[in-house]
Design brief:
Blueprint lengths: L1 E3 L5 E2 L12 E3 L4 E4 L3 E3 L3 E3 L2 E4 L3 E4 L5 E4 L4 E3 L1 E5 L4 E3 L3 E3 L3 E5 L2 E2 L4 E4 L3 E2 L9 E2 L5 E6 L3 E5 L1 E3 L5 E2 L2 E5 L7 E5 L17
Parallel strand pairs: 1-3, 2-4, 3-6, 4-7, 5-8, 6-9, 8-11, 9-12, 10-13, 11-14, 12-15, 13-16, 14-17, 15-18, 16-19, 18-21
Antiparallel strand pairs: 19-24, 20-23, 21-22
Length: 196
């Protein structure tokens, strides 16, 4: 564990090769600033005052990784390249790009907010956002357009069930679209075969 816990401002150094950071933690009153790329192979703990202005944080551990802490984390850009996945135990915002190269992101009961579309090559039940634990995937909306939410659930069986919305008009002051999955047939659906 490497912990940045100063009460004065701290700049977090770049470590991208060969292994990056294992577990990384932030605490203390001082603003911790990340302005470049970093690899994280363990857990991310934010109990401090974090400011990520530039760069990409890549989660590429060999076992399930956690983003946790008493404070939400706002990232510039994130890459998840971990076949065992990333689990949110705190709210997360990504203002730049979010790329899911391998594995899943499990929202549990937290909120993941993105500004841009999520990049996933060949999404599937093994490569999606798990939104069935009460959490919500949100996409900020600044105008009209088509959006795809690469979500699914892992209740009983992992199932990829993306949601697509086309916004054709509206007022977009602090607007977002939020989605989550409930692994059950809607009570007003009388069909025995037409449901997710």
């Amino acid at each position: 564990l490497i912990e940045f816990n100063g009460n004065d401002a701290q700049t977090i150094p770049t470590i991208t090769t060969p292994f990056g950071y294992h577990d990384i933690a932030f605490s203390g009153a001082g603003i911790k600033t990340i302005t470049s790329n970093a690899l994280v192979q363990g857990d991310w703990l934010n109990n401090g005052n974090l400011n990520i202005t530039l760069g990409t944080i890549t989660f590429n551990g060999g076992s399930t990784q956690l983003i946790k802490g008493i404070n939400a984390s706002t990232f510039n850009s994130v890459i998840v390249n971990n076949i065992n996945g990333l689990v949110l135990n705190a709210d997360v915002s990504v203002v730049g790009s979010l790329t899911l190269s391998n594995g899943t992101i499990d929202l549990t009961n937290k909120i993941l907010t993105t500004t841009n579309a999520i990049s996933i090559a060949s999404p599937s039940a093994a490569k999606m956002i798990i939104a069935s634990g009460g959490g919500e995937l949100r996409r900020l909306v600044s105008g009209t357009g088509n959006m795809v939410f690469p979500i699914g659930d892992t209740t009983n069986t992992a199932e990829y069930s993306p949601f697509q919305v086309n916004i054709t008009s509206g007022t977009f002051d602090n607007a977002y679209v939020g989605v989550k999955v409930n692994d059950a047939k809607h009570p007003n659906n009388a069909s025995n075969t037409h449901f997710l």
